[in-house]
Amino acid sequence: MLLAGVAQGCVYALGALGFVLIYKATETVNFAQGDLMMLGGFFALTASVTLGWPYWATILFAVAAMAVVGMLAERLILRPVLGQPAFTVVMITIGLGYVVRGVVTMVPGWGTETYQIATPFVDDVWTLGGVILPVQQLMVIGMTAALCALLYFFFRFSTLGVAMQATSQNQLAAYYMGIPVRRVNMMIWGLSAGVAAFAGILLAPVTFVHSNMGFIGLKAFPAAVVGGFGSVPGAIVGGLIIGVVEALAGFYLPEGFKDVAAYIVVLVVLLVWPSGIFGETGRKKV
Amino acid sequence: MNILELSNVEASYGPVQALRGVSLTVEKGKIITVLGANGAGKSTILKTISGIIDPSKGQIRFNGEEIQGRDPDRIVRGGIGHAPEGREVFALLSVEENLRMGAYTRRDRDGVAKDIELVYGYFPILKERARQEAGLLSGGQQQMLAIGRALLSRPKLMLMDEPSLGLSPLLTQEIFRIIVRINREQGTTILLVEQNANMALDVGDHGYVLEVGRIVMEDTCQRLAQNKDVQEFYLGMKAHGVRGQRRWKKKKQWR
User: What pTM was computed for the model?
Assistant: First the structure.
């Protein structure tokens, strides 16, 4: 029960992470995040079902393909409107989301059907001291944790990762340091889309792959808000909170509460911590 | 030999023209200062050289090569470092990470490590704070970090924008002493923009006076410091008339 919540929360967390990465770096909220997740799911579908690749190769392929899609989206769609008001940019990401959703339904073999991706551990169960643990959910949690660790080390220790942080903290100074800011932004979009693909794949066994699975983004967004928009650990924690609350609400509360639980959490959290749990309180020193 | 030459550079922020045809030359190995009041266009000159702003007219030659309108990262790679106005450190990165970002364009790890030690040599306080977030440093320490960070790209020419901004007179002196040391010991040419004309004329070799986007005067810093107008308008010494009163409506000679 709790485990299912945590697993679901992990997916929200990854979705939220995608929002946060782009928001931090470019101060843009990418409303196409959920649809990128969906597109990642479809890439995985093609690799695993049509091409018959093993699960791990599928993941690599979908993440890599989405990273390329993310970078292209930044380069072709968002860079031309650089410097326009935030509203314009937000509208463009919403539009991007719709276009992606539309295109997916037109691709032969994808369409509006619902598909399932075979995972190597669908029905396996571990029994631990009388408690039955579905391996499926453990894998989701484990893979999310692994990805988070990977991202942590990347941002903490690699030059490019630190440069991404630097760019998001002070874009002007990044220019002065000779960091190619535009290229870094492009890579952040790639990274974010890759994370979205990963989330899409993890989500696939739970909700199946279909062209509207991008609406999961509507849950990932509150997760990002709860954690404090612009905070990476916040996104993870926010995702977990929302996942768990939703699972518990689905069990203990009357029908219907499950779907609004996420938004109730957002309201409550914002009342207590207006800038989110991990919201940035520090201001720039002048 | 001139390391940098600006000829008739014009630049604007939208409809506001900030530089109205600025020409200046920077001789290799020297400290060149640009004096001017608020809004005279001092910072704009430096931003235009760094490629943050593209000039609408004119040429910028660095080591004989035209660099106007290039992307900032190419200009840094070419050997121009910038310690920006208001310090602009990466507030949430540690001091050491800030320095490493200064060396972003370099690939020689050993050289970078050596240069980080060099910066710590100039500013020992930064070594003590190496693991701290840069946002938690005091203003003076942040300024030191900004200078150190700019040094790490191994610049041939270093642009310094108001290093004295918001610092106590004592700290300002310390910073300027180190600027001179960097110039002498590393052979780095320095283009220094300052409101603190006193300090700037003290350390500089050659100076320019900038007013509303135009160069109105240039000379050696020694002679500029002797100039009556510079003394009155930038050094705050008042000219006294025979009756011991300040003449009102005194005109600057260059107008």
Answer: 0.83
